[in-house]
Write a structure and sequence with these properties.
Layout (H helix, E strand, L loop, with lengths): L15 H7 L4 H12 L8 H24 L16 H4 L27
Length: about 120
């Protein structure tokens, strides 16, 4: 299997990284796209594994967006801000294949949580 052009990314008419670059997505947004697109297509990983990874990145994206909104200079505050004390923003999303959220396998590339991606 090719590490530079694996089959789980060759579905459809555009590679996920080409879409990510064309849309000027950031790291978190790009990983959400990547994991959703490849969900269920990577050997030895279930669809749920990849969707769980995408959800982890989406949770972090929501947290950072909420932090950005809370530090904005708007006097009336953002209308869609979710308080960090809201339990829904503090729940940990852990992959079902790992007992430790810091030991997540992301396919061989060093990750920011101590695992690999």
């Amino acid at each position: 299997m090719s590490k530079t052009n694996p089959p789980h990314y060759r579905h459809g008419s555009i590679q996920p990284w080409d879409f990510i670059i064309a849309q000027d997505l950031n790291f978190l947004e790009g990983n959400i796209i990547k994991y959703v697109v490849r969900a269920g297509k990577k050997h030895d990983e279930s669809r749920l594994d990849d969707l769980t990874k995408a959800a982890t990145y989406l949770r972090k994206l929501i947290e950072t967006a909420a932090q950005d909104e809370s530090t904005s200079t708007r006097s009336d505050g953002p209308s869609h801000y979710v308080s960090p004390s809201d339990e829904s923003t503090n729940r940990s999303i852990q992959p079902r294949y790992s007992d430790d959220s810091t030991d997540v396998d992301f396919g061989g590339v060093p990750g920011i949580f101590g695992g690999t991606c």
